[in-house]
Design brief:
A hairpin with a 2-residue loop joins strand 2 and strand 3. By secondary structure, the protein is of the alpha/beta class. It has a 5-stranded mixed beta barrel with strand order 4-7-6-5-8. Helix 3 runs parallel beside helix 6 and helix 4 packs across helix 7. The chain is built from 7 helices and 8 strands. The protein has a single domain, classed as 3-Layer(aba) Sandwich (Rossmann fold). The two termini are 26 Å apart.
């Protein structure tokens, strides 16, 4: 294999256990296996990729992929998806709220701050990490149908997993006025742009790590899953279904 195209066409099935031709045109990304199983149960389809790095399920031209955690894996899945040139990729991630957010709130980011470093291998640091407006607009409409509200703003993406004890880092987060923090969004936006893949994100606030009592625990994470994950997934499915129904292009940037 001598070209990127040859590599990703071979590696996408290798990572997921799913043949290239069986992927949907619209992709949901998640870090959590239970999102994939919930999707599969909803549509009565099988989960593929057991024992692989990533797991998938496909129904109604939508494929959901659990790609794992962190910016390197986010970059990997967006590179692999260039093998199928999806019409839209929506990331359903969890995040830590940094301002007035409460656990269970939704955040529809208008941009991401590239603190993770991985995206620097794809685009110069001056290039902002932005979502595709059409996709975010459709997600917004889907949230409204559920009679829910959401926050908007920037999300800071970092490679640091354990930082909740670091007061100087928390002061930095206050200074940059980010709405939330995660480990994938900026990478997905930049690598999506580099691969000409329309992309967006809808984040679920799973913890409030700026205060000691808000740091995520096993117990609190189970509660988030029980109370909010079903709606998070439903909104994502409905948004991509609406895009597929409309037949409209999601691209709003010229990939040149």
């Amino acid at each position: 294999m001598t070209t990127k195209e040859q590599i990703v066409e071979n590696w996408l099935p290798r990572y997921t256990g799913t043949p290239v031709e069986e992927f949907g045109s619209y992709i949901l990304l998640t870090n959590f296996f239970n999102y994939v199983t919930m999707f599969a149960e909803k549509f009565g389809v099988e989960v593929r990729g057991h024992g692989r790095a990533m797991q998938t399920a496909t129904a109604n031209d939508i494929t959901i992929i659990n790609f794992g955690m962190g910016s390197p894996m986010a970059a990997t899945v967006m590179d692999l998806l260039s093998a199928i040139s999806p019409k839209a990729v929506l990331f359903l991630g969890k995040c830590g709220g940094l301002k007035k957010t409460q656990v269970g709130d939704l955040i529809l980011p208008i941009a991401a701050i590239r603190g993770e470093g991985t995206s620097d291998d794809y685009m110069p640091s001056e290039i902002p990490a932005l979502p595709s407006f059409r996709l975010q607009s459709t997600v917004s409409a889907s949230i409204a149908k559920h009679k829910l509200d959401y926050w908007t703003g920037t999300v800071y993406t970092t490679n640091r997993r354990i930082w909740e004890h670091d007061d100087s880092f928390k002061e930095y987060l206050r200074e940059i006025r980010a709405m939330a923090i995660d480990m994938e969004t900026a990478t997905i936006f930049i690598v999506g742009f580099a691969n000409s893949i329309p992309h967006g994100a809808l984040l679920l606030v799973s913890d409030n790590p700026m205060v000691p009592e808000g740091v995520k625990t096993e117990e609190s994470d189970k509660k988030v899953t029980a109370d909010y994950v079903t709606t998070h997934l439903e909104i994502g499915i409905e948004a991509l279904t609406e895009l597929a129904r409309s037949g409209e292009s999601v691209k709003h940037l010229r990939f040149e």
